[in-house]
Amino acid sequence: MNESAKKKLLQMIPHALYVLTAEANGKTASSTVSWVTQASFKPPLIALGVRADSQTFEILKQSKNFILNYLGENQKEIAQKFFKHTDPAESSIAGEAFVRSPLHKLPMFPHMAGYLECTITDIVEQGDHAVVVAEVIEAELGSANGPLKLESTGWSYGG
């Protein structure tokens, strides 16, 4: 295989950046993710890739629910805060204020571009990232203009 071409072409797949939050057994996950796509209209499904060796993935498997917070186009510095695990402090995570979502009471950030509240329907564990399929059960627009596109940040993830 032409490894250089493969890497370049995979990195050309457009992605936005999101902050995923979930909770289980007293632990909170909050991570920047980028491998997300819509997968079905009826029911409304999304699919996302999550590092299989991450604390976020372990919490997701236990929680079965999560929030996908859409970052605004000018929120690169917020995305960077969630590259490493940070425990919540009362009503903030990594210095970002959150409120609880309406259905599963998970952390969501109203100052971002919006959020989807999701319930996991399937998990495919192959490779270094697991594919998580989830049904969208709630959605709300936020105050920021979005999305924050990976290509606009100067960062790359993929290949």
Protein model, in words:
With 159 residues, the chain is of the alpha+beta class. The protein has a single domain, classed as Electron Transport, Fmn-binding Protein, Chain A (Pnp Oxidase, Chain A), CATH 2.30.110. The protein is 18% helix and 41% strand. The protein has four helices and eleven strands; from the N terminus they run αββββαβαββββββα. The chain has helices at 3-11, 55-63, 76-81, 150-153, and strands at 18-24, 27-33, 36-40, 45-51, 65-70, 92-93, 96-97, 99-100, 107-108, 114-125, 129-141. The strands form three sheets. A seven-stranded antiparallel sheet has the order 2-1-5-10-11-4-3. It has a two-stranded antiparallel ribbon with strand order 6-7. The longest helix is centred in the first third of the chain and has 9 residues, at 3-11. It is globular. The two termini are 13 Å apart. The mean pLDDT is 96.
Detail the topology: elements first, then pairings:
Layout: H1 3-11, E1 18-24, E2 27-33, E3 36-40, E4 45-51, H2 55-63, E5 65-70, H3 76-81, E6 92-93, E7 96-97, E8 99-100, E9 107-108, E10 114-125, E11 129-141, H4 150-153
Keywords for this entry:
single chain; 159 residues; alpha+beta; Pnp Oxidase, Chain A; 18% helix
Condensed summary:
This protein is of the alpha+beta class. It contains four helices and eleven strands, in the order αββββαβαββββββα.
Supply the number of structural domains. 1
> Which CATH class is shown?
Mainly Beta
Number of strands: 11
Q: Note the beta-strand portion.
A: 35-45%
- In CATH, the architecture is Roll
Instruction: Based on Cα principal axes, name the global outline.
Output: globular
Structural class, judged by helices and strands? alpha+beta
Instruction: Please outline the major beta sheet.
Output: 7 strands, antiparallel
Rg on CA atoms, Å: 15 Å
Report the average pLDDT across residues. Answer: 96
Going by CATH, the homologous superfamily would be: Electron Transport, Fmn-binding Protein, Chain A
Question: Which percent range fits the helix content?
Answer: 10-25%
Strand arrangement within the widest β-sheet reads: 2-1-5-10-11-4-3
CATH topology: Pnp Oxidase, Chain A
- Give the ordered list of helices and strands: HEEEEHEHEEEEEEH
Which stretches of 5+ consecutive residues score pLDDT under 50? none
The number of distinct helices, counting runs of at least 4 residues, comes to 4
Our measurement of the CA-to-CA distance between the termini, rounded to an integer number of angstroms, reads 13 Å
